[in-house]
Amino acid sequence: MPTAIVTVNNTESEQQLQVEPPAAGLALQGRICVPGDKSISHRALMLGAIASGETTIEGLLLGEDPRSTARCFRALGAEISELDEKTVTVRGVGIGRLQEPLDVLDAGNSGTTLRLMLGLLASQPECFFAVTGDKSLRSRPMSRVVQPLKQMGAQIWGRRDGSLAPLAVRGTRLRGIEYRSPIASAQVKSCILLAGLMAQGRTTVVEPALSRDHSERMLAAFGADIQADPEAKRVSVVGGSELKGTSVVVPGDISSAAFWLVAAAIVPGSELVVENVGVNPTRTGVLDVLAMMNADIHWENQRTIAGEPVADLRVRHTKLNSCEIAGEIVPRAIDEIPILAVAAAFASGTTVIRDAAELRVKESDRLAVMAQMLTKMGARVTERPDGLEIVGGSPLQGADVDSHDDHRIAMSLAIAALNARGKTTIHHAQAAAISYPTFVSTLKSACDRS
Ligand code: S3P
């Protein structure tokens, strides 16, 4: 079978990724290993940095986002070895002993770095911190964490009444609160719990729907006094306990696996096994949605590694049906909605995505950008305030599209291009390195094996 042509063109200002499937079609075959989970990588670096003693991390994601976390926490006094997929060693400062950095802390493109770090900085007495990020991060809402931190007594200033970075933080002794979050956000929940580690008394977060629980699991593994009640969507931490360094094994990122699951599902004749994928139930919304769409996905070799469930996922091409994505499944699939929109474009019937307004405040406005880019490729997409309506089934055409510097958009469009007629050029494709630095080489080898 002829292979798709995947080429990269680096200009002074951007990387262009060109994908052109052969006219006779393409079938993806083989086994794929995805890099480490981004959420778990951030948390392993951060908890290692504030714990006492040594933490070892196996399988850390070497993407730009965890590099931002490592850079910030080095500046805060943690000793973090050179980042390496095999093992990273973190020698933590001990709780309450982060150092005042000499310069601004730059979280780059990473919302998780900035929001989680804010909880730790706000509760660090007698230190002053200035934090910022790239253009995208400086436009993303920070009041969702600044407001509850202020209720705990935090002193934070920033543009628009502290709702936009750059932010200035004067660390102080905080008091525990019970916070009922209006949004299901693991970044909000984790920020408050991290602040609660050093606050007086108990800090509780109640969510409207369950978001990813990696912080809860990892805090328990580091010895924090934490109680989670997932049924009640409630989690509490009691301030004052020491965290002790431990060893963390990072599973493959289901958000990265999702690109290959959809690729094999939409490209006729494909069969792929994606190995070592983290299948924590707070993250498997994408698998539930694909099952609703009639995708053929089997879990193999299920195991638990360092407190997180892991499996290999075998996916075969099938004819996909439309479905409705709404309600509690949305936070469990929040980062996979762009690639699920691609799946919907190839499914028969109308897929409706609702309750997903959060996508408008991610690395880009993912609802607007996916609607525009899929429309450019010939899909029938209507943008709604909180979602998308996608009439699937009409063939897609190759086009000139743009990632808007959003990693998940870049990769979603590359997968859509695998089943489009003619050549697609994805502008600003370098964004993929935020969460998946080996995406293009894996794409090339998956196509070469077809
Ligand atoms: C993340 C939580 C999610 C997700 C982001 C990573 C995390 O954001 O979109 O990519 O690691 O906690 P929200 O919690 O704000 O929805």
From TrEMBL:
Q: Which Pfam families match?
A: EPSP_synthase
Q: What is the lineage of its organism?
A: Bacteria, Bacillati, Cyanobacteriota, Cyanophyceae, Oscillatoriophycideae
Assembly, in brief, is:
Monomer.
Query: What's an example of a GO molecular-function annotation for this chain?
Result: 3-phosphoshikimate 1-carboxyvinyltransferase activity
Q: Where does 3-phosphoshikimate bind?
A: K38, S39, R43, S185, Q187, D335, K362
Which function does this protein serve? Catalyzes the transfer of the enolpyruvyl moiety of phosphoenolpyruvate (PEP) to the 5-hydroxyl of shikimate-3-phosphate (S3P) to produce enolpyruvyl shikimate-3-phosphate and inorganic phosphate.
Q: Name one GO biological process term.
A: aromatic amino acid family biosynthetic process
Q: Where does phosphoenolpyruvate bind?
A: K38, G111, R140, Q187, R366, R408
Q: Which NCBIfam families match?
A: aroA (TIGR01356)
The places in or outside the cell where this protein is found are: Cytoplasm
Task: Name it.
Answer: 3-phosphoshikimate 1-carboxyvinyltransferase
Catalysed reactions, as listed in the record: 3-phosphoshikimate + phosphoenolpyruvate = 5-O-(1-carboxyvinyl)-3-phosphoshikimate + phosphate
